[in-house]
Specification:
The complex is a heterodimer of chains A (503) and B (145). By secondary structure, chain A is mainly α. Helix content of chain A is 75%, strand content 2%. Chain A starts with 7 loop residues before the first helix and ends with a helix. Chain B has one domain. Helix content of chain B is 72%, strand content 0%. Chain B is elongated and about 65 Å long. The chains are: A mainly alpha (503), B mainly alpha (145). Chain A: The chain crosses the membrane at residues 6-24, 31-49, 69-96, 108-127, 133-151, 163-184, 204-228, 240-258, 270-291, 303-331, 371-393, 405-426, 454-478.
């Protein structure tokens, strides 16, 4: 099916960003426009998802130029799922930002850049052209540089230097890989590349190119050994920005890995083995990194690294059931990670610290809020009815069936460490009594206006609700994941949608 | 101090006189490059740079403040205006049921300008954005130095 509607999510955010520029210094107007824009974009994304679900892959040839030459936009189920997740997170974090981000940051264009970032993510998920994917990556990382440094604190600059350096390096490697691929095939369209790469006789060069892609995307999604930029930069910006970064930016790298290694390249045993070894090392280094950290957001940063390992492991197994598990895990992880960062921001508002040894007594002071936080934290671990449980079981099972016992052991080890740390956060932050008398701690949350409090709590509750829904209505999510996995195992569906749907 | 300033002003007489004539010429040239851009080298980006160079030259000869007073509005306002123009010109074919960014052209070509279509408006949008961005960056730096 050919439709211009595929661009609607991108445009919704682009228009919002442009509109925001007309209201540069007017904070209240910016907040309202941002919420409206995010809501409209959310509706568009939902409609795009349901259209893709109903009619199959939707494609668009930009400017009417035919498939291998023009820029293609494709919405298959994987893209539609990612777009929908982005929309959910962007709406929640957008609402949260109206209350959590301070006014001076908004005056320097926080919302404007925020919408550009989301636009870049939408574009990256929807494009069907490898060079266009690079362009969207650039849109995203340039916006993220601005968001990371907005406010200009020394700590932020320090984090930003590492972040910028590593991401620039990743972009260079990614671009080099595209250059080589273009050199050997003469095409940039992902569907066309799949056909062209399959008939190349110099398989060695193809393997090297695919590994270059893996390194480029690997740095962006923070896998071992080049993950260290993430824990050293993600705790520096405000938590609303951390929520977007933690939930979506690394997943963009994983998404690209899915695309490149299911459609363009057919990984051989060697590459799959590389994936599995890297996944194991990523999980172990993330798990060891998390153990001795005391700042909540640093813990979360290492959790991101650790759990990226699950996703890479799923690609390494390369079976349909593993893909189902990975997609399910991706859906669960995006929602939970964003929510955890928002939660950490709220805890900071309440207690003015994120150090778990200095925190305490939250359950006593805010019992209802603590219940919501409990849902989020235990979703992350995957206590049975909650959302993390199902995908982990699938991955365990598949690792066992494939006789990858080391991988299975590492998956269980990483889950165990996650459980241990989450239990520690729970007991330190919520159950333990405050060391100092309560009056000495400054509660920045209590003096907020009522609407301000709602803007902080509503998104967290909503995302916790989504997590609950994912956990309790697992068959629905599994059905979606199965379809994505089926499309990933049969790339001809994607290729035909692009190449044969010419007008 | 006062003597120094007047000496500086004297030194700049040639530059200022030249700028008064160069500014309109450069702006005209930038429009020429913009219109030329569809088939020959040129276009919105280069045209925008040339136009902003004209204003930068003016700010060297006079001062940033006086250059800004040439505008009725802040150059920053050009950025959203240009972006909006570019997006709308891309969206026009969508209203006609064609894919986004398809070139739609008027049947008759206009004298001097040549054929008019959505690509031209897209380029004008780029032209405005480039002027807005370059002037905003340069003047912000000039204010802070």
């Amino acid at each position: 099916m050919i439709s211009n509607f595929i661009l609607a999510p991108i445009f919704a955010h682009m228009f919002t960003a442009v509109l925001l520029m007309f209201f540069w210094k007017r904070v209240q107007a910016q907040k309202i426009i941002s919420i409206i824009g995010n809501s409209i974009a959310f509706i568009m994304c939902w409609r795009l998802f349901s259209a893709t679900w109903k009619y199959g892959n939707i494609t668009l040839q930009l400017g009417g130029w035919e498939a291998p030459f023009g820029i293609t936009f494709v919405s298959d189920t994987l893209s539609a799922v990612m777009v929908l997740l982005t929309a959910i997170v962007s709406l929640s974090v957008g609402i949260y930002s109206t209350s959590a981000i301070n006014i001076s940051r908004i005056k320097y264009g926080y919302f404007f850049i925020y919408h550009f970032l989301i636009m870049g993510l939408m574009g990256a998920f929807l494009t069907g052209d490898i060079f266009n994917l690079y362009v969207w990556f650039e849109v995203v990382i340039i916006s993220s540089f601005v968001l990371l440094t907005l406010g200009g604190k020394k700590r932020q600059m320090e984090g930003a230097v590492k972040y910028v350096t590593m991401n620039m390096l990743a972009s260079v490697i990614f671009l080099t890989a595209i250059g080589i691929l273009y050199g050997i095939t003469g095409s940039l369209n992902i569907a066309d590349l799949a056909n062209q790469v399959a008939i190349i006789e110099n398989r060695g060069l193809v393997t090297v190119t695919s590994l270059l892609f893996f390194v480029g995307f690997g740095i962006k999604s923070a896998v071992f050994p080049l993950y260290f930029w993430l824990p050293s930069s993600y705790h520096t910006p405000p938590s609303a920005i951390g929520a977007i970064f933690g939930g979506l930016l690394t997943k963009m790298g994983v998404y690209s890995l899915f695309r490149v290694f299911t459609i363009i390249f057919k990984p051989d045993d060697f590459i799959l083995q590389v994936f599995i070894v890297i996944a194991i090392l990523t999980m172990i280094s993330g798990a060891f990194g998390v153990i001795n950290k005391r700042n909540i957001r640093r813990i979360l940063s290492y959790f991101i690294v650790c759990h990226i390992g699950y996703l890479i492991a799923g690609i390494g197994l390369y079976t349909e059931l593993a893909f189902v598990g990975v997609i399910f895990y991706l859906i669960h992880d995006v929602i939970v990670k964003s929510n955890l960062f928002m939660m950490s921001g709220l805890i900071q508002k309440i207690r003015e610290t994120q150090d778990i040894t200095r925190l305490g007594g939250l359950y006593k002071d805010y019992p209802k809020l603590s219940l919501i936080f409990a849902v989020i934290l235990f979703s992350l671990v995957g206590i049975p009815p909650l959302s993390g449980f199902w995908p982990k079981i699938m991955l365990f099972q598949e690792a066992f069936v494939q006789k990858q016992y080391v991988l299975l052991g590492t998956l269980i080890f990483a889950s165990f460490i996650t459980l241990f740390i989450v239990a520690r956060i729970w007991s330190e932050v919520f159950w333990k009594d405050l060391l100092k008398p309560n009056s000495e701690e400054i509660d920045h949350f209590a003096p907020f206006s009522k609407s301000g409090k709602i803007a902080l709590i509503l998104p967290i509750t909503a995302l916790a609700g989504v997590s609950l829904y994912i956990g309790l209505n697992a068959p629905v999510i599994i059905e979606v994941s199965e379809r994505v996995a089926h499309e990933m195992k049969n790339p001809s569906i994607y290729i035909d949608a692009v190449m044969k749907n010419l007008k | 101090m006062k003597r120094y300033r007047s000496k500086k002003e004297q030194d700049q007489t040639i530059l200022r006189t030249a700028t008064n004539y160069l500014l309109p010429v450069l702006l005209l040239f930038s429009v020429f490059v913009l219109l030329r851009g569809h088939y020959l080298s040129g276009g919105g980006f280069v045209g925008g740079l040339i136009a902003s160079i004209a204003f930068v030259l003016h700010s060297f000869a006079y001062s940033t403040k006086q250059t800004l007073s040439l505008f009725q509005f802040s150059p920053m306002a050009l950025i959203p205006a240009g972006l909006a123009l570019s997006i709308l010109s891309g969206l026009l074919p969508v209203l006609l049921g064609l894919p986004f960014m398809t070139g739609v052209w008027f049947a008759d070509s206009v004298a001097v300008i040549g054929s008019v279509g959505t690509a031209l408006f897209f380029d004008i949008g780029v032209y405005l954005v480039v002027i807005g961005v370059v002037l905003t960056i340069l003047f912000t730096i000039a204010e802070n130095v």
